[in-house]
Amino acid sequence: MRVAVLADVHGNLPALEAVLDHVQTLDVDRIVLLGDIAGGPMPGQTLDRLAELADRVIWVHGNGERELVDAFDGAGPTGPAADTVASCIPLLERRHRDLMADLPLTVTVDVDGLGPTLFCHATPRRDDEFVLVDSPIERWKAVLHGVTEQVVVCGHTHMPFDRLVTGRRVINPGSVGMAYGPPGAYWALLGPTVQLQRTMYDVHAAAERIAASGFPNASGWAEEYVLRPHSDDDALHAFTTIAANDGPTPTPN
Fold this sequence. Notes:
Elements: E1 3-6, H1 13-24, E2 30-33, H2 43-51, E3 57-59, H3 63-72, H4 82-88, H5 94-100, E4 106-111, E5 115-120, H6 137-143, E6 151-153, E7 161-165, E8 168-172, E9 185-190, E10 194-199, H7 203-211, H8 218-227, H9 232-244
Helix pairs in contact: 3-4, 3-5, 7-8
């Protein structure tokens, strides 16, 4: 089993299309989606494109899917992404809601060369928890407590890394649609090795498509996340503050 791992597309359909074209040139058995797929300027089209891949795709849910389903069902959006969630709802239909509903928090796939590999959006225990490449080991121990797989793949922070933590290998593929640092669409190819990938795409053409999407302030979104993305240093600083305020790390039983 050789898999492509795509996380945090965030409704950036042009970036997704570029990655799927890249994946098509490789010997890949399945595509694993790590959540936060639709929350962005082209949510419905993004979900429709992935639905076309049918059983070739393995899904897990992120906080984005949970929040979009709740809002579609009538709950008022809350939290940092409330405006984005509210902007997406008029662009989604019932089939999109049903595609996102009831997705698992984690899946395990036996990957060539890596063995049983656990995939999740943020952490194996929560879909909105922040752990970073340089998070304290005690926090990593708490996050991975009870996990039997020796390889864990997570997204959520949009920043790629590949490191050892408490005897396990932890991989983040980065973000397809809302990357920090150098422009491009980031993802990972697993089996039999780990290859962190960056697919280049025409960001100016992408920005034009996004601007015409009907998403509120779509031009501003494209300017901030496609044309002039935040630096990895700024993102790491912001996420370190969020992680520090995410509550005390529970002590494993």
